[in-house]
Known about the structure:
The protein is built from 11 helices and 10 strands. By secondary structure, it is α+β, with helices and mostly antiparallel strands.
Amino acid sequence: MDINLIQAQIEADLSNAGSLQALEELRVKYLGRKGLIAELTSSIPALAVEDRGNFGKEVNALKSRLLSLIHEKEKSLAGDSGKAGNVDVDIGMPGIAAVLGSTHPITGIIDEICTIFSRMGFSVLEGPEVETEYNNFTGLNIPSEHPSRDAFDTFYLENYPKLLLRSHTSPVQVRAMKAHKPPLAVVVPGRVYRPDAVDASHLFMFHQVEGFLVDENIRFSDLKGTLEFFVKSVFSSDIKMRFRPHFFPFTEPSAEVDISCLICKGKGCSACGKKGWLEILGAGMIHPNVFKQVGYDQKKYTGFAFGMGIERIAMLKYGINDIRLFFENDLRFLKQF
Ligand code: PHE
């Protein structure tokens, strides 16, 4: 039996041992009661007398070499797992997924509305939330002391009597028309503010999307066709739309636009107050006095404008019954979008 060969085999086995458990198995295999060393020792009496002494020494040397190798390996394996904090790491275990947010429902509806109008050639513009009294009112044909100012109840800035939080997105009409010549087709998403008492359908802040188009020969039927395409895109193609006469100082004629109730399809239910119709926006042909304010030729140009409340559209679309839900940051609500 070649002791050197055996030793080479043992050294290879030990260096391959990857864990304390594997090392223990090798220890039993070589040093155990029925292990290799015991086997070699018990084979000595069968040897020729003159060979016994030499072989016995070799086996002893092998045994002590084995003991010291096992001891070293034990130290290095214990040191390795010590570095990992003695924690068992299961590399096959699934990872912990990062929590991803999603688009806020109001942002989602604004994006959807802007996309629909972009397809019709409208540009998207924004304006400031702190506005001048002129842009919010005077430029829109709502002079000081005009009673219709009450309808756009307003937060004024303390110490800045001519500045306010815009009560609608219509002041961006004035800004855009003063900055650009017709033809002009623009949609304007943004926040607006009104000092309303908060309840399930009112907040002091909400979102609107304004739209307007100015060119030669723009007619009321253009307004109607544009809005019809819009409501069918946002809601569904079987939706009906109607115009009710209304008054806005900055449009003439003006209308409020209703869609057939999304829930009862026009038959009348509690969501539409038995009317079968839901109001979704205000619209009309831009008043000549607005063109005068922005310096457009009133004889040459005509145009239409409309404005809608986004929370209301989101509530109708998703069947949400309390506007406050949008702004409470309750993840149980927001995760649904
Ligand atoms: N600015 C109006 C409002 O806030 C809506 C509107 C916009 C009406 C444009 C007509 C034309 O109620």
